[in-house]
Write a structure and sequence with these properties.
heterodimer, A: about 375 residues, alpha/beta, nine-stranded mixed β-sheet, 13 helices, B: mainly beta, OB fold (Dihydrolipoamide Acetyltransferase, E2P), 2 domains, three-stranded antiparallel β-sheet, 1 helix, 8 strands, about 5% helix, about 40% strand, globular
Chain lengths: ~375, ~140
């Protein structure tokens, strides 16, 4: 039996919706369908070829039936915005074990226009509803942000470090016509922007958009016979981890254990080292997340992330280009950004990105979900080892 | 603080909320491993022992991290910034709360400042909130 890692499973189709941003003319489920059909066309396959479906948000049975797919394998793992990293990992295991041959992973969210989505109602008897929400932590910007000051304080940093993240990533977005925020930014402009939740100003918080994306995976063996095989992207390794369902209960405030565990497993299963990584996508719903990730994934030592970004290492020409679509902070963020991080990694590995980094052969994709609740990591490559 | 949602106790958390209504902060301690833990559940979060005891603690701790939320979500008053703080109790557990009795300005809120619990009515419940020590009401 083939293994799930080491390039034996491939992404053979990948697409976002035709546009991302403000799409009031499309319901959430149509964003799934649009991306899924484009990804299948990209792979040279049809819905009839799909026998596995994974999604988060709607149930996989809703997406399956909507598209006319009769799956024999379903995955509805929901751990927030990094669910799609876990879906890719689970799909690889399913394909390797023979539980599925062709898996569709889809995402669509009308995060801005709220078309075809139900209302959200807080469960006041849940642990979060009893022990966080009454104090005001009910939205992402007033929950996910709370640990950041501790991170900065322990490293002798201040909120300029957050602004530097925004400025570095905006540089990528300026050249990307699909990015939501494209105006060049300076550290002073970011710091002087409208305050949202100190230490965060508006530009340190992600955009809120509509859009979707989908991936089609199959075995590398089958990929070789497909029209999409020539631009196949191979899964070298992966990892997943979870921690607390409440931000206040994460094991350490200034470091995220699930980042450390998921990424360590991804590096180990991929059998690559940090020096092998040409490109990094790090889920950035807020500006402190790339700082946590660079340290927790081991790309830099403790306390070195802010200087690493400020010195330009993640910008064009830097040694570790990061969030090259502009990230959730500038490109797009529907509510579950993980799919878009994977899409940009695939584009870079295929040489098709809006702002292309030369010679990307190995990309690391790090997701986070549920406000420091879960993490998923993928190591993707343009070449089969 | 200017309002917000009201917690709904479950059978497992009811002693905590009965405590806040009585003006006491009650958390659980494991008799098997000795550790205090939060949030409430009828077994130890660390060793899963069911031999646990409710303790009334002093309600003193330190400010680990915080935000000043300039956009409170209704039913909280959107016009009054909230200080949402992470508090580590002297017994070890960490809990989210609000810092009260101080203007919402970063210079008033040094990390690691010692804090002390007090209680504010919220609907039919009472919320544990914290005040910087030395400024006790």
């Amino acid at each position: 039996m083939a293994g799930m890692h080491g390039g034996q499973v491939a992404i053979v189709g990948a697409s976002e919706t035709r546009e991302v941003g403000v799409l009031p003319d499309r319901a959430m489920i149509q964003l799934h369908a649009e991306a899924a059909l484009l990804a299948l066309a990209d792979a040279g396959l049809t819905a009839a070829d799909v026998d596995g479906v994974a999604t988060a948000g709607p149930l996989p049975l809703e997406v399956s039936h909507h598209l006319g797919i009769t799956p024999r394998w379903l995955d509805g793992t929901m751990v927030g915005g990094c669910s799609f990293m876990l879906h890719v990992r689970h799909a690889a295991a399913a394909i390797a074990s023979g539980a599925a041959d062709v898996v569709l992973v889809s995402h669509g969210e009308s995060g801005r226009s709220r078309v075809g989505v139900g209302g959200y109602r807080q469960n006041q008897a849940s642990a979060q509803g009893q022990f966080e929400a009454p104090f005001g932590s009910v939205a992402p910007y007033c929950t996910f942000t709370v640990p950041a000051l501790r991170f900065l304080h322990d490293r002798g940093l201040d909120r300029r470090a957050l602004a530097e993240v925004v400025v570095a990533q905006r540089e990528w977005a300026v050249g990307n016509p699909r990015a939501f925020r494209r105006k060049p930014a300076t550290v002073e402009q970011v710091l002087d922007g409208p305050p949202i939740a100190y230490p965060f100003t508006r530009e340190m918080c992600c955009v809120v958009t509509d859009g979707g994306g989908a991936l089609v995976l199959t075995s590398a063996e089958r990929a070789a016979d497909l029209p999409g095989g020539e631009h196949a992207v191979y899964l070298l390794g992966s990892g997943e981890a979870c921690e607390a369902p409440m931000m206040s209960q994460m094991d350490e405030v200034g470091s995220f254990g699930a980042f450390r565990r998921a990424s360590a497993e991804a590096f180990a299963t991929a059998q690559v080292s940090h020096a092998d990584i040409d490109h990094l996508m790090g889920y950035d719903a807020f500006a402190h997340l790339p700082l946590y990730m660079l340290e927790d994934l081991g790309f830099v030592g403790r306390g070195e992330s802010a200087a690493f970004i400020a010195e330009g290492n993640t910008r064009k020409g830097g040694k570790l280009p990061m969030n090259t679509n502009g990230g959730g902070l500038s490109y797009t963020h529907t509510g579950m950004y993980g799919m878009f991080a994977i899409q940009e990694a695939v584009r870079q590995l295929r040489g098709q990105a809006a702002v292309q980094v030369p010679d990307v052969q190995v990309s690391f994709v790090q997701g986070v979900g549920m406000f420091f609740g879960a993490a998923g990591s993928l190591v993707l490559s343009s070449r089969q080892p | 603080m200017a309002g917000g949602t009201v917690p709904v106790p479950t059978p497992e958390t009811a002693p905590f909320w009965a405590g806040t209504l009585a003006g006491e902060l009650r958390i659980q301690q494991c008799n098997a491993c000795g550790r205090h833990y939060f949030y409430p559940r009828p077994f130890c979060r660390y060793c899963q022992s069911g031999d646990v005891t409710w303790r009334t603690v002093a309600g003193t701790g330190r400010l680990v991290s915080y935000i000043i939320n300039y956009r409170p979500v209704p039913p909280a008053d959107p016009g009054e910034p909230q200080i949402i703080g992470l508090i580590e109790l002297d017994e070890g557990p960490r809990m989210l709360s609000n810092i009260v009795g101080v203007a919402p300005e970063p210079e008033n809120l040094p990390l690691d400042a010692t804090v002390r619990v007090e209680f504010e009515p919220r609907g039919d419940q009472a919320l544990p909130v914290f005040r910087l020590d030395g400024e006790a009401a």
